[in-house]
Amino acid sequence: MRQMLMRKLNSELSGELVEVNEVDKPRVAGPFDVVIKISASGVCRTDLHLISGLLPVGLPHVLGHENAGIVEETGSLVTTVSKGDSVICFPFISNGLTRTERQGLDTNAPNRITPGINAPGGYAEYLLTNERALIKVADDSDLCELATLTDAGLAAYRACKRASKVLEVGDTAIVIGIGGLGHLALQILRSVSPAKIIAVDNKSEALTFAKTLGIEHTCGANELTSRYHGEAKVVLDFVGTSATSADALKCLTFGGTYFVIGAEGSVTATMLDLIENEKRIEGIYVGTYSELQEVTHLATTGELQPRVQKYALQDANQALHDLLNGKITGRAVLIP
């Protein structure tokens, strides 16, 4: 089978980042293993972090942690999916036996396997996963759209679900960064919350994109603190630079919460500001299996529409460079 192989780190993110490689198709080894034929694999900024060395990775490596496809082969004890089923992949593979996993927090499972991070991922024609990590979807599902939910949509949904617990009618919610995750968050937040939503980005085309999603209020990043200082009950930051975190904290009202989803910088706050204004800072890391089911339901019922930009598998380098250079509207996916 074909796969796009990352052979070395590339701190400058220049030139060829991955290359076409031919290997044997993976086969089931354990009774709960499942091999899927990839229909779509999302292209994520985490992939750039792995290539640049910002995140640790073993080499050589196959990227791709947002995956959807068709079941090709199943282990002897698999009962919930069969060959030919359409499925999306929860990003973590675990056995479900630890206390953390029994609480539904596979994100914190001690020995979890994450295809595309610490195991071969979906930048390939086939992927080895297991039954516990799969969600069966209708045969006529758009797997290109649904693949983007398995990380981008999942993290956006978890953030919006947390935010909805504190948002009431009349509150303001600010979403910073209208990209692969942010455009999903705008739609999700509108579905689960009565708050006034402000879409924020430093690119005018991203703000125009937000309006096509039905968002009435937009704001340039350079105007954010002058227009919304002290007004937001929540800020969801999908950029996560030191600059956006500083702006986000300035925009929070008393008792407001800053949700950190992007990871490009650091957060600096004085203790006095946090105490006097009872501000909260909360990190969001992917999400749970049940939350993936919930956000998938939003998509399959039409309340959420991921916008995807499609690339052939062999054009992975172009997709990665387009992501790096801000040329993607919505989320990019690779199609074998």
Features:
Rossmann fold, 27% helix, 16 strands, alpha/beta, 336 residues, 6-stranded parallel sheet, Quinone Oxidoreductase, Chain A, domain 1, 2 domains, 26% strand, 7-stranded mixed sheet, globular
Present the secondary structure layout.
Elements: E1 2-6, E2 19-22, E3 33-43, H1 45-52, E4 61-62, E5 67-74, E6 86-89, H2 99-102, E7 126-130, E8 134-137, H3 143-147, H4 152-164, E9 172-176, H5 182-192, E10 196-201, H6 204-212, E11 217-220, H7 224-228, E12 232-237, H8 242-251, E13 252-260, H9 271-276, E14 280-283, H10 289-300, E15 308-312, H11 316-324, E16 331-335
Parallel strand pairs: 9-10, 9-12, 10-11, 12-13, 13-14, 15-16
Antiparallel strand pairs: 1-2, 1-4, 3-5, 3-7, 3-16, 5-6, 6-8
Tell me what the structure shows:
The protein is of the alpha/beta class. The chain has two domains: 2-151 and 286-335, Quinone Oxidoreductase, Chain A, domain 1 (Alpha-Beta Complex), CATH 3.90.180.10; 153-283, Rossmann fold, CATH 3.40.50. Helices cover 27% and strands 26% of the residues. The chain contains eleven helices and 16 strands. The protein has helices at residues 45-52, 99-102, 143-147, 152-164, 182-192, 204-212, 224-228, 242-251, 271-276, 289-300, 316-324; strands spanning 2-6, 19-22, 33-43, 61-62, 67-74, 86-89, 126-130, 134-137, 172-176, 196-201, 217-220, 232-237, 252-260, 280-283, 308-312, 331-335. The strands form three sheets. Strands 3, 5, 6, 7, 8, 15 and 16 form a seven-stranded mixed beta sheet that branches. Helix 4 runs parallel beside helix 5 and helix 4 (152-164) crosses helix 10. The radius of gyration is 20 Å and the shape is globular. The N and C termini lie close together (10 Å). The model has no long low-confidence stretch (mean pLDDT 96).
